[in-house]
Write a structure and sequence with these properties.
Blueprint: E1 7-11, H1 20-30, E2 34-40, H2 52-59, E3 65-71, H3 79-84, E4 89-93, H4 100-109, E5 113-118, E6 136-140, H5 156-168, E7 174-178, H6 186-192, E8 196-199, H7 201-204, H8 210-226
Helix pairs in contact: 1-8, 6-8
The chain binds D-xylitol-5-phosphate.
Length: 228
């Protein structure tokens, strides 16, 4: 039975963008572990969100960590900007850069923690050659671009394969899932091998308070991890 403690990450995509400072403070008070900034460029994904100045403006509102999920084409030129904005983890998509090994090394050289994301149609094999360079692998459980989408259970095979590869190679790589993570899906993602869970809609809407929703998600993730 696995007993590692889950990490709960909040996506700010469903937040009230006119009150982002209050929203991140609300998330911290509710007990999430980290904030995910869903950065979108309107090219890699059909949506456009925010840049490093918006993240920087909210850095001092809370003390918890920030991760930048770069759903952008060619992320290399702006890598320093996300680190300067206060993001400790920089997630790039394997599909978005021509030289992934170089991009991940550049994130490390900036003193940040490198992470790589896979779209649903991208196989784990696309990143096995760089897993030793990252702290975290993000397995998308929706097609990126929008919140509130249906969880893709078919991704559980990829999550399990990633868990097996990481364990076989004795790598220290966390597996994050993002997209449709809610009370009825987080347990299956945890059982498959995820230990970091990014949720947006399930934190901002639903029964009870935000604190109640954080507790319910965390409890379901613990149960899923223990059931592996
Ligand atoms: C997709 C986004 C979403 C968001 C969370 O590009 O990255 O996955 O973080 O969305 P929901 O509302 O599904 O938790």
């Amino acid at each position: 039975m696995d007993t590692c403690a889950p990490t709960l990450v909040a996506s700010v995509l469903p937040a009230d963008f006119s009150e982002l400072g209050q929203e991140v403070r609300r998330l911290e008070k509710a007990g999430v572990d980290r904030i995910q900034w869903d950065v979108m460029d309107g090219k890699f994904v059909p949506n456009l969100t925010f840049g490093p100045d918006v993240i920087r403006a909210n850095r001092d509102a809370v003390s918890m960590g920030f991760e930048a999920h770069l759903m952008v084409d060619d992320p290399d030129p702006m890598l320093p900007r996300w680190v300067e904005a206060g993001c400790e983890i920089i997630i790039v998509h394997a599909e978005a850069t021509r030289h992934l090994h170089r991009t991940l090394s550049a994130i490390s050289d900036l003193g940040a923690r490198p992470a790589v994301a896979l779209n649903p149609s991208t196989p784990l094999e696309a990143v096995t050659h760089v897993l030793h360079l990252v702290d975290l692998l993000l397995v998308m459980t929706v097609n990126p671009g929008f919140g509130g989408q249906q969880y893709l259970a078919a991704m559980e095979r990829k999550i399990s394969a990633a868990r097996a590869e990481i364990q076989e190679r004795e790598l220290d790589v966390a597996i994050e899932v993002d997209g449709g993570i809610a009370g009825q899906t987080i347990g299956a993602a945890a059982r498959a091998g995820a230990d970091v869970f990014c949720a947006g809609s399930a934190l901002f809407t639903g029964a009870g308070t935000m604190e109640d929703r954080v507790t319910a998600l965390r409890d379901a993730a613990v149960a899923g991890i223990e059931a592996r």
